[in-house]
Amino acid sequence: MKKILFVIAIIFYSPFIAAQTSEIENVPLEKMAMLDSILGKWHTVQYAYENDAWKQIATSKVT
Fold first, then answer.
1. Is the CA virtual torsion 40, 43, 47, 53 positive or negative?
2. 44: closest CA among 61, 19, 30?
3. Residues in contact with 62: Cβ distance below 8 Å, sequence separation at least 6, in sequence order
4. d(CA 21, CA 14)
5. What distances in angstroms separate CA 17 from CA 1, 10, 11, 22, 59, one per listed residue?
6. What CA–CA distances, in Å, run from 24 to 18, 28, 39, 61, 63?
7. Mapped to the 3 state alphabet, what secondary structure does the chain carry?
8. Alpha-carbon gap, residue 44 to 39, rounded angstroms
9. How many Cα atoms are found within 13 Å in the side-chain-facing hemisphere of 11?
10. Which of 2, 13, 45, 48 has the fewest Cβ atoms within 10 angstroms?
11. Residues 34, 56: contact at Cβ < 8 Å?
């Protein structure tokens, strides 16, 4: 009985392993390189909508 459960578990689990490894290899690195322009330190401002108006509630620096 344990062998049957083990085989069933392997059958159901193997597609997930294959899907995770195959997609990583298909990432187009040249398109990822286009995102280099947004790297750096940014100043962000957070707003909340209160009483029919947007009000600044916080600021932060992010990397």
1. negative
2. 61
3. 41, 42, 44
4. 11
5. 24, 10, 11, 9, 41
6. 10, 9, 22, 31, 25
7. CHHHHHHHHHHHHHHHHHHHHHHHHCCCHHHHHHHHHHCCCEEEEEEEEECCEEEEEEEEEEC
8. 14
9. 6
10. 2
11. no
pLDDT in tens, 30-61: 777 888 888 899 999 999 999 999 999 999 99
pLDDT value, residue 10: 74
Determine the straight-line distance between the first and last CA of the chain, rounded to whole angstroms. 53
The tokens describing 59, both together, are: 């600021």
